[in-house]
Amino acid sequence: MGNFLVWIVWFVAAFACLGSGAAVVSFANPFYSALALIGNLGSLAVLYLLLSAEFVAAAQVLVYAGAVMVMFLFVIAYLGRHADAPWAGGPSWQALGAVAAAGALMVEIVVVVGLKASGRLSNAPDVTAAFGSPSEVGRVFLSDHLLAFEITSIVLLAAAVGGVVLGSQARDDQAKSSSGSALGTRAK
Amino acid sequence: MTGPNLTWYLAVSAFLFAIGALGVMLRRSPLIVLLSIEIMLNGANLALITFSRNHADMSGQIFALAVMAVAASEVVVGLGLIVAVHRRKLDLDVDKLSTLRG
Fold first, then answer.
1. Cα distance between residue A179 and residue B46, in whole Å
2. Which residues 113-172 on chain A approach chain B with CB closer than 8 angstroms?
3. Mean pLDDT score, A5-32
4. Looking at the predicted structure, is the pLDDT value of residue A187 above 60?
5. Which of A44, A37, A143, A141 is nearest to B66 (CA)?
6. What ipTM was reported for this prediction?
7. Which pTM value belongs to this model?
8. A129, B35, B53, B78: which is deepest, by most CB within 10 A?
9. Nearest chain B CA: its distance from A88 CA (Å)
């Protein structure tokens, strides 16, 4: 009975995940794409829970579906109608090539993983209740992977500085171009 | 472990990665390209967590958390670039932004 319930949850989460992923790619309005990506991230969090990665699932919902997607929606709302991305015409060589390349990529992944790991995937080992819990994640992060933890902080700092620099340069450009156009109208 | 075999999770992850790659190659709006890159990163994260469960080793989950931090940084810089492009009154189209000389 428990087994059956896990299958049902897996089916719903996996198909919600794939369906919302296809929706992200196919919507013309980026606002709907971003909303579909929130659904995608939420259903992925359910899959993470099924794989007993509780902390990663919580971080996924908080960081990704929460913070990152709010930033996305904010920028899309700021751009307004300039953000619209209508589909360009009928099928072109570029589109056909993209579909073929994506299909080849998927076949490649499936073949490589199937060749390398198919024998070991069928029987996953039993894990204790502590596996994936916040305390265990913290212990591993601050002992075995301390360097990764520190480098992550540097990456986040660099991204914050980069965001500020890009924002301030954009403001300078805008000030320059608006004063230039004011001068131009005065010369006329 | 009850429920589906770990192979099914990997199949979902490969499918997600392919959908994301399709979006990156097919769409022209930089916003949707960024969203598709997020899908690709999440496909990779799902594979990492599946293999972490398969080996009963937490390192894969740590790696997934690091990927999440890198993805957040990438979104900050990417959205900053998109806003900067928009303020220079250029079209938001990756085909037309091929030189990025402003």
1. 50
2. 113, 117-118, 120-122, 124-127, 131-132, 136-137, 140-141, 144-145, 148, 152, 155-156, 158-160, 162-163, 166-167, 169-171
3. 92
4. no
5. A141
6. 0.90
7. 0.87
8. B35
9. 9
